[in-house]
Give the backbone structure.
Amino acid sequence: METIGEKLKSIRKSKGMTQAEFGESIGFSKQAVSNIENNLSNPSIDFINKLIVYHSVNANWLIASIGEMFISNQNQLRSLKNEIMAEVEMILNKRGIR
């Protein structure tokens, strides 16, 4: 089974982007992308959320290797984005951040 780091590298390579370009596209540094790709650190919830939303990555594929790498159906993508944002809001509220 592929690691999250290996999957991230596959996503980035399929987009034809360098680590720096990919990191910039989701608001993270080249070093953050490198550390995750090399399994030196785990991605944050924010990193995963932006990966899914900005690059249409299929969360089921990313987490459980189910389905295709990317979501192509825009309605499915919008629904997933709404679910993720609701989950993030709930986490932030529980932590008293919002």
About this structure: The chain has a mean pLDDT of 90. The first helix runs from residue 4 to 14. The CA atoms of residues 27 and 50 lie 8 Å apart.
